[in-house]
Amino acid sequence: MNESSRIGIGYDIHRLVEGRKLVLGGVEISFEKGLLGHSDSDVLTHAICDALLGAAALGDIGAHFPDSDPKWAGVSSLKFLERAVELVTQEGYRVANIDATVIAECPKLRPHIQAIRESLASVLRIEVDQINIKAKTNEGLESVGRGEAMAAQAVALLIIR
Ligand code: MG
Fold it and tell me: Whole-model pTM?
């Protein structure tokens, strides 16, 4: 690849269930439920991984970290992000910026946004002002609106190093 910039998009959704920790962007958030899945099920980090991999035409998170592999059971999704950054770096790119939206009915995420940005920026090896995180509700609609799931969307821009 020799384009000067590349854009990627990521989307993810996980069920919210009792008896699991809630982790978003590597930050543990106190809440009565957490996200269900093989890893820590950090839906935001998963969407960002897919945006990065997508931008570099490197497939998706499921191809690199299959949930059939016991190696990834319960692991911090920041490990996936670290690896995704390594992969795009090997392709000759660096991250210009990330923009992401978490869609969740509750808890209120605004108080956690800055900690999440700092957590992600350190793994992405970028400045905090290169990553923006937004939180939306689903206005009570569908599974996310009923509090049965959380979803996330992300875009990543890579530029040649
Ligand atoms: Mg996921």
Answer: 0.97
